[in-house]
Model the fold of this input.
Amino acid sequence: MLARRKMSLTELSEKVGVSIVNLSILKKGKGKAIRFSTLQAICEALDCQPGDLLEYQPENE
Amino acid sequence: MKLGRVLVFALFIGYGALLMTYSNNEDPLWMILALSPLLCLVGFAIVGRYQPWFKPILLSKHNQMSEKVIIVREFDFEADLLFDKLLEVLPEAGFDLRYANREKMEILASTRLTFRSWGENLYIDIEAKGENCTMTFTSTTFFQIHTWGKNKKNVEQFVREFENSLII
Done:
């Protein structure tokens, strides 16, 4: 999604107000959970829907 | 109580007795000699204990003058990412960052020196194991034989705050 919007992680971090470290954690799927407010801010910044960012993967895959 | 701690305790009782015995001595040299261990102690508490070279001394099992609490946790994070995350969380958790070395993957933070406490040093060592990491948190006092669980509480609180910070 970042590539499609031609936006760097640094730019997104500035727009959303979430640190680059936290965005990297989210990008790698290592976060424990995501707040609705964070999800909303990212969707606004990238002009997309939560479904464009989240994907369900069964654990054994 | 361990023998080492008994010896340290006896040493301080002896030092106190010596100070009281000669407290009427007006020779300035004696006063300097008598107070120098105390001044060294305060100097170390303010400057010395934040130096990375002091780590092996403070964490040595032979050091009977400080209590140590060790907590080991495993995270499925890359070491670099975990290192950056720790640097971000430490100030938020009320710790002062004193030293960080990315090559050695070690961090030193401390709680603040107050009138009631010398403060604690928190050493964090990260060891990469493939895609996972082992983090060793060691909280140690500078000059306190027993902390009545405060040391343990500090390090557990930090670990909790670190884990909570993964809710983004």
Q: What stands out?
A: DSSP finds five helices and five strands in chain B. The interface with chain A takes residues 76-78, 81, 84-85, 88, 163, 166-168 of chain B (CB under 8 Å). Residues 3-21 of chain B form the longest helix (19 residues). Strands of chain B lie at 68-75, 96-101, 106-110, 120-129, 132-141.
